[in-house]
Structures are given as structure tokens and as C-alpha cells.
């Protein structure tokens, strides 16, 4: 009955969420931007006891969390895994399970199992709950180079499917998502549909996510706290990084320290998130992790007319921390367009500040944010309202390559790219940092 009810709800929501295509013009006169695309529903086609919505995420330096859902409440929370294909598994791990109610919706049994230790840069095969198909994934490399796919505001439209196809057309190691996953917006069956849509990708490479405004899902009286579905379905390794909240955390992979911040939980200088961030940045060892990357949802720098100023209070609270720690890059979503800034600090170009990138153009159902402020800010080096994805390939301790791939018909067209030098390699920035810290302490 649960599946039938959810199916009826999905059919109802499909009428509400269909988008009317609009042909719009790009900054490049020769290119017509894509229409918004229709909503995609991914049905449940396996038995109640078989795993669905399988996805993986990094836990510590050599473990992986495997998450999935079953309609069968008696299904086991166990993962068998090994390096041989075809059911010859060398190890087995047991985990935990949860479920949640949301208004009239009852989730399936949500399983989370941590497996490992795992070898780096190695293909593993695994089965969830002892039933269903065999899945596989590749662990990230131990050292450079490493490649991240970066996609914000994903949703589940035709352009979402196109973006994921383009991402998967070239190998990568870790998928980074700065908020707005399913666009369920309180309609819980859409979380299930989203999980099934992304399973072919999220079961093969670790997905590391942070929350956006569409994950809040507060309902007066019945659901006052928010993030119930997000926290139940997408647990992050927050405890391993000393965080008390699934909404912000950090992890390290292949010489890179990545910080996931929460735009929709407290962030002022009296908040737990602020205190945690100070502590986390203080523990970063730039000899072990020369690159530091931050992801959040609401951008601190934005020349699009959409969502102007929505990240400003967080910027004022936390920007000094990122600047003093010499964070290399900051990725954001929320604005449904792409924009790359120069290195910035306090609204000025600064060679020792992070490079800011807005990449909220994964395929959302709300359409593209078309209008930009004029004249063009000298801080903004490239901006375009088109669907696409980004790739950050960190080559070594000092150099990385960033590229943005526009979804251009059947091909992912590289519309913007730049080589980046890590701030750890700029001695001038670290001398400036010492002067800044001394001055700050004297005040």
C-alpha cells in the first residue's frame, strides 16, 4: 500500500511540477539556452526486500558509508563487499537503520552501513542486504591527482539527467553537491524518486553533500524543526570532524581538506557552527592537505539579480575565518546559473582570498536565473545562465584546473576553464596573514 500511495502522489505532483519550455538567449549570441525541462519521476521497479536508492559517501580516510532504502521492514542492514566481481565477497559489515514519518508519509527502512578499511584507487563490488543487484565503486586515490565533479541545485528534470550523463561521460573520483538535492519541498515521495534517479551514479562514486533551502522542509506545528528527510537519508561524516550537526562537517581526501558549511543553520560568532569552523580550520595541516575547499549553498558573492544579498550575513560572520586560513576555493549554489569570480576578500580583489564559484545550474525545476546586474563587476570573470557542471582536477600540491561544462545538446561543452595556483605556494600571502593576525590580536 505504501508504494501505491506514493505512486498516486507522484502522479499528482507531476501535474503541478511540469515546466513550460522557454527559449532564451545566452551571453553568447550564437547560443540559445536550454528550456527548463520536464520533471522526471523514477519509479520503484524492484521487490520490496531489494535495495533501492543506493548511494555511498566517504567516512574517514579509508571507509565508505553505503546507504539504501527497502520497503520491507525486515530487510537486513548488512553489506557484503570485496574486490572480486560475481558474489565472491571477502568481507561483511553490519550497520544501522532508521525511518521517519512526515505528515501522512511513512518512509521505508533506511539503511546505513560503514564498510572498510578500503584500499585507495581500488574497484570494489558490493551487495546490500544480501539481495538484489551487485553494485560497484572505485575508491579515491591516496595522493594527487584527484578530480571532483561539482554540481549544485540538482533536482530531477530532463536537464538533471543530462547533467548526470555528462558528468559520467568522463571518470572522476568524488561528487560534490553544494545544496538542493531532490527539490521534494515537503512532498516526500519525491525524495524516493530522486534516490532512484541518482542511484546509477551515486552508487559508483562517493557523493558528498551539504544542505540547501529546499532541504529545510519545515511545516507549521507538524514539522517544526526541519531537515528530517535530509538527515535521515543523507548522513554525513560530521562526527568524524568534531561537528555536532549533520548540516556542517569536513573531510579529507587525497591531499584536500573540504569543508561543508550550513547556510540554513546558525552561523554567527556565538553559534556552534562558527565555533566548530574555528576549531576545524585550526587543525588543518597544509603539509598534508595543501588544498582547502569550502562548499555552502547561498553564495557570498553574486552579480545575478536572483537571491541578491541572501548570503551576506553569513559572509560578514565567517569570511575573515576563511581568509585568514587561506582557503583556496569556495563553491556555492542557490542561484540557478554559473559565475566565476577572481580571488576576493571583503568585496575587493585580493590575491590571497579564495576564488568564488557559483554553480547552481545542475538541472533544477525552477528554471535558470537570467538577469545579471549591470555594469559587470570587475570581480566577476565569467557568468552565464545555462545548465551544466564543473570539474576540479587537483594535479599536485600547487596547481589545479577548473572547468565548467555547459550542457550543449549531446555534448558537454567546456565554456569556461582556468588554471589555479594553491595559496600555500604564495609566500606573500602567508607573510600578509601573520601581519593581519598580529594586528587583529593587538586590537
Automatic annotation (TrEMBL):
UniProt domain Purple acid phosphatase N-terminal: residue ranges: 51-139
Catalytic activity: a phosphate monoester + H2O = an alcohol + phosphate
Cofactor(s) for this UniProt protein: Zn(2+); Fe cation
Protein name per the record: Purple acid phosphatase
GO molecular function: acid phosphatase activity; metal ion binding
Organism phylogeny: Eukaryota, Viridiplantae, Streptophyta, Embryophyta, Tracheophyta
Purple acid phosphatase C-terminal domain: residues covered: 353-410
Keyword annotations of the record: Glycoprotein, Hydrolase, Signal, Zinc
Gene3D superfamilies, sorted: 3.60.21.10, Purple acid phosphatase-like, N-terminal
Amino acid at each position: 500500500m505504501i508504494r501505491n500511495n506514493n505512486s498516486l502522489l507522484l502522479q499528482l505532483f507531476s501535474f503541478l511540477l511540469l515546466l513550460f519550455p522557454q527559449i532564451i538567449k545566452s551571453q553568447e549570441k550564437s547560443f540559445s539556452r536550454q528550456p527548463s525541462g520536464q520533471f522526471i519521476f523514477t519509479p520503484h521497479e524492484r521487490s520490496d526486500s531489494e535495495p533501492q536508492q543506493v548511494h555511498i559517501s566517504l567516512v574517514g580516510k579509508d571507509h565508505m558509508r553505503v546507504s539504501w532504502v527497502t520497503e520491507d521492514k525486515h530487510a537486513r542492514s548488512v553489506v557484503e563487499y570485496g574486490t572480486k566481481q560475481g558474489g565472491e565477497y571477502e568481507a561483511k559489515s553490519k550497520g544501522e537503520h532508521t525511518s521517519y514519518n512526515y505528515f501522512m508519509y511513512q518512509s521505508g527502512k533506511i539503511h546505513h552501513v560503514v564498510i572498510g578499511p578500503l584500499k585507495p584507487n581500488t574497484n570494489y563490488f558490493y551487495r546490500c542486504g544480501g539481495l538484489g543487484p551487485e553494485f560497484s565503486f572505485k575508491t579515491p586515490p591516496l595522493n594527487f591527482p584527484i578530480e571532483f565533479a561539482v554540481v549544485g541545485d540538482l533536482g530531477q528534470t530532463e536537464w538533471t539527467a543530462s547533467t548526470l550523463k555528462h558528468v559520467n561521460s568522463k571518470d572522476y573520483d568524488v561528487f560534490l553537491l553544494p545544496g538542493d538535492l531532490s527539490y521534494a519541498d515537503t512532498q516526500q515521495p519525491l525524495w524516493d524518486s530522486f534516490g532512484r534517479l541518482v542511484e546509477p551514479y551515486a552508487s559508483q562514486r562517493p557523493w558528498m553533500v551539504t544542505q540547501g533551502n529546499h532541504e529545510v522542509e519545515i511545516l507549521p506545528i507538524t514539522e517544526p524543526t526541519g531537515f528530517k528527510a535530509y538527515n535521515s537519508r543523507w548522513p554525513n561524516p560530521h562526527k568524524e570532524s568534531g561537528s555536532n550537526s549533520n548540516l556542517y562537517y569536513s573531510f579529507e581526501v587525497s591531499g584536500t581538506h573540504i569543508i561543508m558549511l550550513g547556510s540554513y543553520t546558525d552561523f554567527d560568532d556565538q553559534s556552534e557552527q562558527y565555533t566548530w569552523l574555528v576549531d576545524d580550520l585550526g587543525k588543518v595541516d597544509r603539509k598534508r592537505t595543501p588544498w582547502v575547499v569550502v562548499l555552502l549553498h547561498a553564495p557570498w558573492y553574486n552579480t545575478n539579480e536572483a537571491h541578491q544579498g541572501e548570503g551576506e550575513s553569513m559572509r560578514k560572520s565567517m569570511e575573515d575565518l576563511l581568509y585568514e586560513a587561506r582557503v583556496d576555493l569556495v563553491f556555492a549554489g542557490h542561484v540557478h546559473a554559473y559565475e566565476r569570480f577572481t580571488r576576493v576578500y571583503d568585496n575587493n580583489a585580493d590575491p590571497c582570498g579564495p576564488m568564488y564559484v557559483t554553480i547552481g545550474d545542475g538541472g533544477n525545476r525552477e528554471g535558470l536565473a537570467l538577469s545579471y546586474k549591470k555594469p559587470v563587476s570587475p570581480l566577476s570573470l565569467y557568468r552565464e545562465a545555462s545548465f551544466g557542471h564543473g570539474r576540479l582536477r587537483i594535479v599536485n600540491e600547487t596547481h589545479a584546473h577548473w572547468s565548467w561544462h555547459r550542457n550543449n545538446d549531446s555534448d558537454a561543452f567546456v565554456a569556461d576553464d582556468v588554471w589555479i595556483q594553491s595559496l600555500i605556494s604564495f609566500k606573500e600571502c602567508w607573510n600578509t596573514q601573520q601581519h593581519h593576525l598580529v594586528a587583529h590580536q593587538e586590537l
